[in-house]
Amino acid sequence: MRYLNQSTSKWLLAGLSLALPFSGIAQKKAATSKATTSANALSAIRESDVKSDLFALGGDHFRGREGGTLDELRASAWIAEQMRAIGAQPAGDDGTYFQFFHIQHTRITKASQISIGNHKLTHGQDAFVLAPSKATVNAPLVYVGTGTPADLAKVDVKGKAVAILFSGTGPADLSFRRYMTATMRDRSAELVKAGAVAVVYVSDARAQDLFEHWSTGYERGRYSLPGAATTKVVAQAPTIWLPTTDLAWVQQAGQQLVANIEVESFTYPSVNIVAKVPGTDAKLKNEYVLFSTHQDHDGVRKAIAGDSIWNGADDNATGCAGTLAVMRAFVKKPARRTGLFVFHGAEERGLLGSYYYSEKPTVPREAIVAVLNAEMIGRNAPDSAALLGSQRPHRNSADLVSLAMNANQAGPKFKLDTLWDKPTHPEGWYFRSDHLPYAKLGIPAICYTTLLHKDYHTPKDEPERINVAKLTNVTRWIYLTGWAVANRDQRPAPDKDFKLER
Hints:
- The chain is built from 14 helices and 20 strands.
- The protein has helices spanning 8-15, 27-37, 47-58, 70-86, 149-153, 176-193, 205-214, 216-220, 247-250, 313-332, 352-359, 398-410, 436-440, 468-487, and strands spanning 89-90, 98-108, 113-116, 119-121, 128-129, 135-143, 161-165, 198-202, 222-224, 239-242, 256-261, 263-277, 288-294, 299-304, 307-310, 338-344, 368-374, 384-388, 415-417, 445-449.
- Keywords: Signal.
């Protein structure tokens, strides 16, 4: 790609146009604004700094930074120290860089018991209950093959536990993981409605791969902010997931499923890390351009190929390294508006940090003019990227999107993937990162991403696999957009008819 290896001086020349005021401003006023805003600090974004921060945060030292653990807190303290060293001011609670909040964790207790015939099963090891809910079951188990209509027509499922061999590949444009989880959920609901008291899925060959690599999420249970509706625990028919090696004995007739599943719920802390670089304009410095990212990942989990640390280098040490680099540029050359930098905790737990901060910001919420979110910005083709929130119904500010598109043309000239931002895309990627809570509140918000890859949420997402040059170029794109937002007279106008599809 043309701009990947060009010198910083050419980047600076390209960025000058972004500092110019937009339409509707008098010529004299435009000349004044140009004089005060054109000299951006793009040169402060150095690939060496980005790489250093990426490897520090995304390496084994912080053990995958799992939300709500000491590893996340240690990584957060490291980020705060980088903020201090860079020269950004604390903008958290009580004059610190930190805004602590609590996570509500609901999980199945270790005392819970599950057995089929004479086979005792342990949740989190050789079986997984898909949702943390109370259940007491003592019912005959009936095996219905792959659960086709013909299979089910032969069996009265009322009052029984139903065992199914998972099968199917799903649509070509949907990851098998999401197809499998949606299928398990929906078919279980149908069987329970028909009278089943439990559903047992046995993995086929493809589902077995996910059983081995992805099931740790079910082991951990459910997370939310305290008081959320999802913290409520109800009694319901359980869905249990087994490995393919259990199929031989699950098929045996005359077995009883006996389960006594109990749930526990408790709270513990996570944290947002917040800093600011005050603006230079007497009036506009009271408005904020929020640069958003998240510092947590999956932590230490089941070992795959001998590696138990799920580093999350792309998800999301890349976003953190990029945001620190943008901060350096704002410190070197402050803008008219204040730059606000928020590293959200517990994103992988359900965007908990961003939901908390958007509801309880440390600055006046009405003063946040835009949110620029960095989520996984260092993989895939070197000349491609995506901007979530750039098209309806996800777009909530055509004005902000225009600034971002101009910044891309002035800077890296990425080829932009538009498929992942469509409401029809099966991954629902727009709804899975920290810009979402702000967008729901009507704050102009966009998300920069280079999308999923085969190492997503596996121990293979390591710093060595990141394209640091590309990461640096996405960072420069974010900075140029933010610089434009922070320096023009008008704040980005929200779309008045913004309404998400769900």
